[in-house]
Write a structure and sequence with these properties.
single chain; mainly alpha
């Protein structure tokens, strides 16, 4: 599967090969082919089970070595190996593999960026599968906040723009409000055109969410808070009667 974002980030970066070796399979999670997604989900389930098994072994040895005292316990060879095994195994799994932030490396040059975007796209396009196999609201929020910066490469900007478009077209899901940060970071005529189309669509969620987002884009100084959302909603004729007010 071609990954334009990965090609951009990986260029000249040896570490990108390691990410690909560990998590390259995960692009199957966003494949259009149901068989490819099913294979990737099976791979993920195995990786998660391996992670849980490694954690169980580490916890078991932690209990067994408690009598040694803290300093001696963490130097005990079997416990040390078990912790190292757990740290390694979870890097092959989602969302655990995304928790390895590159210290001192900006998001735009981070080799993990394609996999962060993959995780967010998976949640956006296949929310039920994401929820069943790798639900992690905190990780979703942290990744959205991290990628919401200006001056991304064109391929990344397009990916982020598309994510905003997908999210405004659906019923609100936990942490979706964080995408306001992304929209502000990648604001463009193209994004506003897509949002304008959503405002005039037959989808009541899209009309509501896109309208609010366009209003915020015109007011960069206004914070995206529950109070602001409710005040805007109350000001929109028919806003409350169109559908149940989503929690922000």
């Amino acid at each position: 599967m071609t990954n334009d974002v990965g090609a951009v980030v990986a260029s000249g970066d040896d570490d990108a090969r390691g990410w690909s070796a560990r998590l390259g399979w995960a692009f199957g999670l966003i494949a259009d082919d149901p068989a490819a997604r099913a294979a990737a989900l099976a791979h993920l389930d195995t990786a998660r089970q391996n992670t849980w098994d490694a954690l169980d072994r580490s916890n078991e040895l932690w209990q067994l070595t408690l009598p040694l005292g803290t300093e001696e316990q963490y130097q005990e060879s079997a416990f040390k190996r078990a912790r190292e095994e757990y740290d390694d195994v979870r890097r092959y799994c989602l969302p655990d593999g995304l928790w390895e932030g590159a210290s001192g490396v900006g998001i735009k040059s981070w080799p993990g960026l394609p996999y962060a975007l993959l995780f967010l796209e998976w949640e956006a396009r296949y929310p039920q599968e994401w929820t069943e196999h790798a639900k992690a609201w905190g990780t979703k929020q942290a990744l959205i906040r991290r990628v919401a910066v200006p001056d991304h490469h064109e391929a990344v900007r397009e990916k982020l723009t598309r994510l905003v478009e997908i999210v405004v077209e659906r019923a609100y899901r936990c942490k979706d409000r964080e995408y306001v940060r992304v929209a502000r970071a990648v604001d463009s005529d193209d994004l506003r055109r897509r949002l304008g189309k959503a405002v005039h669509s037959d989808n009541p969620w899209a009309r509501l969410h896109a309208g609010y987002l366009l209003w915020l884009l015109d007011r960069p100084e206004v914070p995206n808070t529950r109070h602001v959302w409710r005040a805007w909603l109350a000001s929109v004729s028919g806003g409350r009667s169109a559908l149940t007010t989503p929690r922000r």
